[in-house]
Write a structure and sequence with these properties.
CATH class: Mainly Beta
Radius of gyration: 19 Å
Helix content: under 10%
Number of domains: 1
Strand order of the largest sheet: 24-25-26-27-2-3-30-29-28
Order of helices and strands: EEEEEEEEEEEEEEEEEEEEEEEEEEEEEE
Largest sheet: 9 strands, antiparallel
Structural class: mainly beta
Oligomer: single chain
Length: 333
């Protein structure tokens, strides 16, 4: 059931500076700062995070209390909480229909939420241990990676039924969709590499190599690049989606999650059991900053227009709001 909370927020060091260090080889030197605007309590063990850049709203799941919290990016407060399933893994957002789809790893289901309505509007049964999820924009087709039974479910979100199952070995996990190219990318965590599917025919057309343990994917259709966080290899793999040429970048610690800012060509990475946020210049490519946070970080999201970076803290049950400072030269970046 949805719960509308009073405007109660915990602001930690409003407008204070978060120490940032520049990473050069194995040395760390002082560089610049982000502004910590607020730290807000959310659900228990926050995991997945999604940002609606059209409304500047952020959604974050709580794995232990089966919650999905909605926070307005300019108010630093939880507005609404919905109930989901157990072991939330990932969120797919459709800003056109105002729907969210949350994979529940422990239940073998996907929770569906319409943000303008009270409560989760439905539950869809999929495969075992669903992990990644992706929605084709403007359609009713949802893809779900089932890590537990090596398959991808194709779901009709109108009927709430699986209409096709694609066998896919290697422990399918994270997903990314490139709608203009009609390509669906699925990380194969156990075997390594990314399976490339035609999103129309649901057929595997190619496989691209990555580092060991690809755990998160992001695609930038404009630059034809796929970013892969390689957990076991402690690296970032950048794949040219046209030529499939790969570039590997060492990121010092095992990455867990990432968010991409296309305006500034920056990638933000969180790491397993770490309070460090790594910033990558994707054009170089190189690590430019390693930010020491106030606690262990899990998921990360970014809103380029409002220049806000969101960090969920697994151990503290909180979400931090970090402001990207304006460039002293032009005030825009």
């Amino acid at each position: 059931m949805a719960v509308t909370r009073a405007l109660v927020l915990l602001v930690v060091a409003l407008g204070s500076l978060v120490h940032v260090a520049r990473f050069s080889g194995h040395s760390v030197e002082p560089d610049t700062s982000l502004l910590l605007r607020a730290t807000v309590p959310v659900g228990s063990r926050p995991a997945a995070l999604s940002v609606d850049t059209s409304t500047h709203v952020v959604y974050v799941t709580g794995q232990l209390d089966q919650s999905l919290s909605m926070l307005a990016g300019n108010r630093y407060a939880v507005d609404t909480v919905w109930t989901t399933g157990h072991g939330a893994q990932a969120i797919a957002l459709d800003p056109l229909s105002h729907r969210l789809f949350v994979t529940n790893g422990d239940d073998g289901t996907v929770s569906t939420v319409t943000t303008g309505k009270v409560g989760a509007t439905g539950t869809i049964a999929v495969g075992r241990n669903p992990w990644g999820v992706a929605l084709v924009p403007g359609t009713d087709t949802l893809f779900v990676a089932n890590n537990g039974d090596n398959s991808v479910s194709v779901v009709d979100t109108v009927t709430g039924k699986v209409i096709h199952t694609v066998p896919l070995t290697g422990g399918p996990g994270a997903m990314a969709l490139d709608p203009p190219a009609h390509r669906l990318y699925v990380a194969r965590y156990a075997e390594g590499g990314v399976a490339i599917l035609d999103s129309g025919t649901c057929q595997v057309v190619e496989t691209a190599p990555t580092g060991k343990g690809p755990v998160a994917l992001l695609v930038d259709p404009a630059s034809h690049r796929l970013f892969v966080a390689d957990h076991e290899a402690a690296s970032l793999t950048i794949i040219d989606t046209v030529t499939l040429h790969t570039t590997a970048l060492h990121v010092a610690e095992r990455p867990l999650n990432m968010a991409y800012d296309p305006e500034r060509q920056r990638l933000y990475l969180t790491h397993r059991d770490s309070d460090v946020l790594t910033v990558v210049d994707t054009m170089a490519p190189k690590v430019t900053r390693r930010i020491r946070l106030s606690g262990v970080a899990t998921a990360v999201g970014v809103d380029p227009e409002t220049k806000m970076v969101y960090i969920s803290h697994h151990d503290d049950d909180a979400l931090s709001f970090l402001q990207i400072p304006a460039s002293p030269r032009n005030g825009a970046r």
